[in-house]
Structure to design on (386 residues):
């Protein structure tokens, strides 16, 4: 595990220098010599009547069919200047913009140190320790046969200074097309898989199918993801195998020029057989038979260009269907309250090289007193996007 973390950390450090940005393609003019005759004829009509929506839509349709996407883009924009509610022009503009998007790959790397007072989530007798974490995420979007295709991948590692059996690693990826449903709304179906490492051995493998609906209204992300997954644990572990399904949302709102609100609700159903195994809270989906509902609210305020402060609150309620509290007949029920705060220094080291300081307190109130716990976590991470 130490070698894996070292490899990730070395790669992250090497990537902090950034990468060059390619030059933009020149914008093509209107029809000229060699353009299809019908396209040229309609363009001549537009010059005499530039506000005619039907002529511009016809021109855009012909331009798309002949591969002149920038001409089509200009025509759709002309229609929307004079008729902002034209659905055909809105759909065409979104479709052409997507086809014109260049192929792009973005990496996000994080390297950090963590202090935690109760890494085993014990009711009492906890031993504090330091931890190291490394994360490398990739998002790739490109056009394949006129279809926009998105691939994401994530590698994560957490190394404990004292509780070495809690060392944890995760590698996963998803891929699928990005489709325009209606103007402003994208649909991203995807298939994916993941494998994890825990306590020096293989932990589990899983396969997942998901469907995400998202938009970027006024540059703010809003999305809703539906996921179904099957997980199979290594025979060494008391957990076995089974399905889980969840719905996860993320909605961003600009309250003021310097204030951003993010609301992330979720609902999860799990039927993974076997006993519960201790894994990092809020990082992984816990095994067991339960229904869970939760949400996280984050509020960020930009004090200066170089300083952002934030506060957050996470609430989780989980009702188990099989775990009985001791000799009682009632089912186990957990309620977690997790307040937190963050200070972010954007572009502190260089452009897209940020420093984040974070604190959170985890309180689990359970009807099983043997699993209730309190835990304090502080973390300092350096993030780089390239």
């Amino acid at each position: 595990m130490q070698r894996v973390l070292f490899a990730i950390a070395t790669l992250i450090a090497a990537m902090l220098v950034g990468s060059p940005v390619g030059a933009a393609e020149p914008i093509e003019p209107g029809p000229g010599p060699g353009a299809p005759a019908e396209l040229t004829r309609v363009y001549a009509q537009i010059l005499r009547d530039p506000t005619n929506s039907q002529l511009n839509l016809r021109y855009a349709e012909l331009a798309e069919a002949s591969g002149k996407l920038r001409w089509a883009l200009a025509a759709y924009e002309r229609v929307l200047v004079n008729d902002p509610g034209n659905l055909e022009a809105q759909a065409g503009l979104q479709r052409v913009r997507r086809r014109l998007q260049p192929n792009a790959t973005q990496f996000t790397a994080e390297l950090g140190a963590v202090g935690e007072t109760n890494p085993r989530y014990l009711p009492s007798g906890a031993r504090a320790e330091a931890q190291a974490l490394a994360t490398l995420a990739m998002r790739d979007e490109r056009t394949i046969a006129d279809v926009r295709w998105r691939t994401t991948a994530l590698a994560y590692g957490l190394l404990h200074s004292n509780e070495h059996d809690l060392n944890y690693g995760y590698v996963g990826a998803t891929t699928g097309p990005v489709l325009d449903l209606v103007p402003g709304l994208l649909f991203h179906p995807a298939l994916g898989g993941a494998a994890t490492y825990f306590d020096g051995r293989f932990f589990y493998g899983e396969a997942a199918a998901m469907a995400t609906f998202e938009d970027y209204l006024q540059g703010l992300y809003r999305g809703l993801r539906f996921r179904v997954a099957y997980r199979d644990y290594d025979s060494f572990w008391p957990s076995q195998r089974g399905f889980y399904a969840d719905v996860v949302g993320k909605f961003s709102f600009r309250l003021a020029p310097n204030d951003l609100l993010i609301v992330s609700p979720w609902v999860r159903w799990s039927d993974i057989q076997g006993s519960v195994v201790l894994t990092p809270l809020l990082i992984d989906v816990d095994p067991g038979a339960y229904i869970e509902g939760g949400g996280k609210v984050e509020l960020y305020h930009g004090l200066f260009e170089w300083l952002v402060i934030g506060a957050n609150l996470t609430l989780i309620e989980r009702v188990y269907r099989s775990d009985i509290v001791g000799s009682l007949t009632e089912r186990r029920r957990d309620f977690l309250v997790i307040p937190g705060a963050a200070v972010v220094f954007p572009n502190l080291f260089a452009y897209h090289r940020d420093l984040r300081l974070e604190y959170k307190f985890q309180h689990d109130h359970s009807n099983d007193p043997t699993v209730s716990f309190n835990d304090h976590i502080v973390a300092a991470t350096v993030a780089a996007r390239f």
Q: What stands out?
A: Residues 2-15 form the longest helix (14 residues). The radius of gyration is 25 Å.
